[in-house]
Specification:
Layout: E1 11-25, E2 34-46, E3 49-55, H1 59-73, H2 85-93, H3 99-113, H4 117-120, E4 127-133, H5 140-152, E5 157-161, H6 167-180, E6 185-189, H7 203-214, E7 220-222, H8 230-238, E8 243-246, H9 253-261, E9 267-268, H10 278-290, E10 294-295, H11 303-314, E11 324-327, H12 333-337, E12 347-348, E13 351-353, H13 366-372
Parallel strand pairs: 4-5, 4-11, 5-6, 6-7, 7-8, 8-9, 9-10
Antiparallel strand pairs: 1-2, 2-3, 4-13, 12-13
Helix pairs in contact: 5-6, 9-10
């Protein structure tokens, strides 16, 4: 049992960084290409220890945490049960998700206890199977070349994006991958739940796609409808053999309860930094398990955010959480994820190996951060 210690929060800082990309990138959920990747690293200090996390927010996030949030929590005992759940929820309601702050506190506590975070959480899995998550809308030929590299890494599950103007164009990419790689399983992400640019799918269009995917034994169809169409998600689940997933940007245990009890998903995909943190995600995972669902965290995050979700996954049973999402598009994306850290996670035969250092396993390198700090 984790022993209770009195430790006051000393400081809270946010480092906002902009890492130049090798080439401008436009992911399927974005309206325009961008030449840099902007994100923030959260740093908390207490009792001579420092904890870190990261989230894909910019300078406004830094201002929010270093003013309103810092003034609210400075001097509090820095134990997870002492971080007010209402504070986390109100912060998320303000669209400045405080899950990243909660993760940084977990990192600090695990360092204090001298344990890797997954072991502090009671986990025993030293590695978690990854699925390669693509992000761009590439041609069939380009996608096949990329999947070939995944296969060389021992990865046998790939997630493709369906966001092209015409569904037939999406299906052509899927067919090309299925034709070339009989041993690779495929999932599909439609990015409909939170997207603010077209194409937008109706229920009928989502069903049409699901029926096409059944022919290829696709593992799951992610976010095929707008986030609030719970009835539509349930209807889709009841009328297709393809598993339906979602919940990646949701927050609040009652919201997840409503989605799960409403029959929206077969796979729940809460993210440790975009929800209200690891503790909330573990409750969501338990709720999913009670309904005989899977829990697989969304993890398209900066390196420390991805690490948080890796530790979360490793703390749960493999039957409940079989995979960790891993951004591998472009193939050099690990340079961006881990570019300012003092190490990176190894992929071995399709698995991510858990770091055994205390906390998340890696932390920011101050000299590297200096090159990219913008706020």
């Amino acid at each position: 049992m984790l022993r209770k210690r009195s430790m006051k929060l000393g400081d809270l800082k946010v480092h906002t960084l902009a890492i130049p990309l090798r080439e401008p990138i436009q992911f399927s959920w974005e309206p325009f290409p961008h030449p840099v990747y902007v994100f923030s690293i959260v740093e908390v200090e207490a009792g001579g220890f420092k904890g870190y996390s990261a989230i894909e927010f910019g300078a406004a996030y830094k201002h929010f945490l270093e003013t309103t949030v810092k003034l609210t929590i400075q001097g509090l005992d820095i134990e997870i049960e002492d971080v007010d759940a209402r504070l986390l929820e109100v912060g998320s309601w303000a669209i400045q998700r405080l899950g990243a702050l909660e993760v940084a506190i977990w990192d600090l506590i695990a360092k204090r206890e001298g344990l890797p975070l997954y072991r502090l959480l009671g986990g025993g899995r030293r590695k978690v199977k990854v699925y390669a998550s693509t992000g761009r809308l590439l041609s069939a030929e380009e996608t096949v070349k990329m999947v070939e590299k995944y296969a060389e890494l021992g990865i046998d599950v790939v997630k493709l994006r369906f966001r092209r103007e015409r569904i037939n164009e999406d299906l052509e990419v899927l067919k090309a991958v299925a034709r070339e790689f009989s041993d690779v399983k495929i999932s599909v992400d439609a990015n409909q739940a939170w997207s603010y640019t077209p194409p937008y799918w109706s229920r009928k269009k989502a069903m049409k796609v699901a029926k096409e995917l059944e022919n290829f034994e696709v593992l799951w169809l992610e976010e095929p409808l707008w986030k609030d169409d719970v009835e539509g998600y349930r209807w889709l689940r009841e009328n297709t053999s393809i598993e339906i997933s979602g919940g990646e940007l949701e927050h609040g245990i009652q919201r997840f309860r409503m989605l799960i009890e409403g029959g929206a998903f077969d796979i729940v995909q809460a993210d440790a930094v975009y929800s209200n943190g690891i503790q909330e995600c573990r409750k969501v995972a338990a709720l999913a398990e009670a309904f005989n669902l899977k829990f697989m965290p969304h993890a398209w995050d900066p390196g420390l955010g991805w690490l948080a979700n890796l530790h979360l996954a490793a703390s749960l049973p493999e039957k409940l959480c079989p995979y960790i999402e891993t951004p591998l598009d472009p193939l050099w994306w690990n340079e961006v994820m881990f570019g300012v850290l003092n190490g990176e996670v190894e992929l071995e035969k399709g698995y991510a190996k858990l770091p055994e250092q205390p906390g998340l396993g890696f932390e920011p390198d101050e000299e590297k951060m200096k090159k990219f700090r913008i706020a």
